[in-house]
Amino acid sequence: MNMLAWILRRDLLLAMRRKSDVLTTLFFFVIMVSLFPLGVGPEPQLLKAMGPGVLWVAALLASMLSLGRLFAADYADGTLEQMLLCPESLALIVLAKAAVHWLASELPLVLMAPLLGLQFGLPGDALWVLTLSLLLGTPVLSLVGAIGASLTLGLRGGGVLVSLLVLPLYIPVLIFGAGAVDASTSGLGAGGHLSILGALLVLALLATPKAVAAALHISLE
Amino acid sequence: MFEATRLECMRGDSRLFSEVGFLLEPGGLLNVRGANGSGKSSLLRMLCGLILPEAGEIRWNGVNIRHSHDYKRALTYLGHLNGIKEELSGLENLRINCGLAGFDISEEAAIDALERIGLDGREHLPVNVLSQGQRRRVMLARLLVARTPLWILDEPLVALDADAIGLMRSLFELHLENGGMLIMTTHQELEIAAGTTQEIRLSS
């Protein structure tokens, strides 16, 4: 088995042993989205208009919750140090770790989103577009978030700092993600928005692993 | 051959050490000594490539370790952090750590190594129920299966009992007799009857 397979296996095993982490992120997402209809009242037009934005913002915030775990535990127990000494390229290791983070923390949200969209009275087409936009957009959140998580390693109050660093970088994903659903409900077609999300994903896949690897080297000096 | 010349280390504004150098041949043991805070751990981390030296150069077989392709495959570094995951069992930790270091070991080999280091019957327990000394043993079990020529060990004997220290000593001797190299720090006196020993003393 090669080294990346070991990383994937290790992180998946850890995610399975710490199910509560996965579930807290998911329930945060569910509760936060469910609070909005209760707070603003049951007016169908209003809910329909707000739905995509609320779901996307909740997904951003829920992903912030799990970012702290991406490297912090490995940093504290010395396994991150060992990863830096691994003969495999650190950028590829980062990519593998981000992939598992997405599988464990973001994919459950994506799968839950259409169900929550029903609360806002979104039509069937819009629910499809919503799921698709989240599928394309959430990996970008994991990858960009990894930059923030790696830069704040070992800092006190790092969690808040990560939010301040990373949330502004999430804005393009939010605009095109929520925009895709809006475009679909207003009959314009979501193709353009989804293409841009796809382009953002490719860009993040190419650019972020190297940046994270550099940040990890600095954090561990 | 492992070689360092005129290394200098800065932490913040203060100079921890300077003009540190050595030449280590196969079968060579280097003891790094010094008081607490004199920079022993920093020197070892520098030799691994985790810290960049302020000045000086570290070469593995004549190539600077920053440009060497095979240095990371030749190195086993065990620091003062255990580098094991609390939620995983000793067996999983050992196999994963070896896999990440670039060599796969079978489950039987891993169980055998854990038994030899005194963890028989506890291979499948999550590490967080083990004692401090047993956690160190999980980490050190890697040395029983590692085929790497260069070992850099930061306080390997901490929290170990007399039996385990004896086992470590014979392991170090075997490693040196087989032409391995060993760099370590320890506050305990450890008589090693193999290889050639040299010493670096860091003063603060």
Quick gist of this model?
The complex is a heterodimer of chains A (221) and B (204). Chain A is mainly alpha-helical.
Poorly predicted runs of chain A: none
Order of helices and strands of chain A: HHHHHHHHH
Poorly predicted residue ranges of chain B: none
CATH topology of chain B: Rossmann fold
Largest sheet of chain B: 5 strands, parallel
List keywords for this structure.
heterodimer, A: about 220 residues, mainly alpha, about 85% helix, B: about 200 residues, alpha/beta, five-stranded parallel β-sheet, four-stranded antiparallel β-sheet
How would you explain this protein's 3D organization?
- The complex is a heterodimer of chains A (221) and B (204).
- By secondary structure, chain A is an all-alpha fold.
- Helix content of chain A is 84%, strand content 0%.
- Chain A has helices at residues 3-17, 19-40, 44-67, 72-77, 79-84, 90-117, 124-151, 158-185, 191-219.
- The longest helix of chain A has 29 residues, at 191-219.
- The mean pLDDT of chain A is 92.
- Chain B is α/β, with parallel strands linked by helices.
- In chain B, strands 6-7-8-3-9 form a five-stranded parallel beta sheet, with helices on both faces.
- Chain B is globular and about 50 Å long.
- The model of chain B has no long low-confidence stretch (mean pLDDT 91).
- The interface between A and B is medium-sized, with 25 and 28 residues.
